[in-house]
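Aim 2 progress update. The chain analyzed this quarter is reproduced below.
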Amino acid sequence: MSNPAAEKTEDATPRRKQKEREKGNISKSQDLNAALIVTVGIGILGAFSPKILSTIQTMLYYTFTHLNPKDISENDILLVLIPFVTALAQILLPFLILLTIAVIVIIRLQVGNIFAPEKIKFDLSNVAPSKFLQNAKKMFNPAEPRNIVEFIKSLVKLLIVFFCGYAVLNGRKDELYGLMGLSISTSFTVISSILTQMFINMCLAMLVMGILDKKFQDHEYNKSLKMTTQEVKDEFKDTEGDPKIKAKIRSIQMRMAHQKMMSNVAKADVVVTNPTHYAVALEYNKLNASAPRVVAKGVDFVAFKIREIAQNNKIPIVENPPLARTLYKLVPIDGIIPSDMFVAVAEVLAYVYNKNKQGGK
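Predicted structure tokens:
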């Protein structure tokens, strides 16, 4: 029988996801990226098409009206090419700049704000011819059917996109046949309309497949991050701390707090008792506090120790069971007594002060 603790049945914890993200392991769809980039690229190209056509027209006009082959020598070849290079730059640079910005935005929207140096390390072995051959063999290796399935999926996607474009051409083939004998401007308008419809259909097909692929990649990614029950427990220990260690720390903290509380008894002005079950030590410093405060309290053995320390340090002990129980239950250590208990505590302190004066006489 398989061990249930070894089965990855638990969803990944936020910490596990964060660690994988820091390594650059995230859910992403190359198909969706490609679909968005191609769609945006075609859109930019369509927006710039009037400018591109105008630039090409100007270049052709210059070529046929200003260039005379008889006047061109080998030394003038660079000067001749400058107008063409300038025209080409006017066409390509705006398109490439906007496309680069679009690519950055598209990738950023899908992967978010991450920086994983491990993913951008350059390794010459990855570009060696042997590496390409190795990957090709792996792709068609019968022992690794996943690679074959991925190759078939890519081929099916290309065929779907191709047929989406072909369907437009086939549906409007009569218009293409009718272009013979028409003017160039009319032919160009019809061809532009057909190409626009074809690109729209192809882009829509790519976007739909990209969205489906993104959902599939998210599912596979979450599946790959699943954890065993033991891994979740171990991560909880790493994050929150071992319960045994935390209990030990709490025990030490309580012991230190107890020792500090006991040391404060020697500074108290009076200890109010039950007389045996409860003991509460009070201190009243007019310069530091507006009312008396509880510096120590306890029941049974702790109460006995408070009385013992008070006796050793000649701290007055006053038996007042109702006041002792009320102070113990309502006032925390280092807490100021509530206003409705001022009278009762004041009577105790007055009794102690009068007794001290009488003892001093």
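The chain has a mean pLDDT of 78. The chain is about 65% helix and 5% strand. These observations will guide the mutagenesis experiments scheduled for the next reporting period.
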